[in-house]
Amino acid sequence: MNDMAFIERQISYMNEIIKMHNIVKNIHVSLKKLYPVTIVKDNYFFVFDINEIGNKYEFKLKTQTPMPISGNILASFSLDFYDMKPSAVISENILENQENYIFIFHEFVHCFQWENGEIDLRKDLKIEKQEMEKNNYSWEINFSISL
Hints:
- This protein is 38% helix and 22% strand.
- By secondary structure, it is of the alpha+beta class.
- It has one domain.
- It has a five-stranded mixed beta sheet, covered by helices on one side.
- A hairpin with a 2-residue loop joins strand 1 and strand 2 (44-50).
- The radius of gyration is 16 Å and the shape is globular.
- The termini are far apart.
């Protein structure tokens, strides 16, 4: 599938996210806003963001990932190449199943947290400092708790 067909298909899925957002946005303050959605496909980021009116997603840019990304991804982080905006970052197949949209909203909660003080909270965490000194940027994903 060429990029344009892929982009159009993803935008059609995102139209469904907007419909669902209209239903859930009043549940909690962290869900009031729609955030960018970045889709990983063939080691490229495809960034989609809500338009100025706030009624639809638009394709914004395509850029190569800084490292190979294989398998499924469902995360959120700020995009250094997109003005540090927080984004839900997902595998290309996630939006094909509407049942997965709840996970997108979960990632939007993390985007909200990023915009509302997460950086200040994290800078005082001992484990964050230790792992950053080791350049272990995915420590949260790989972290396990021994009980």
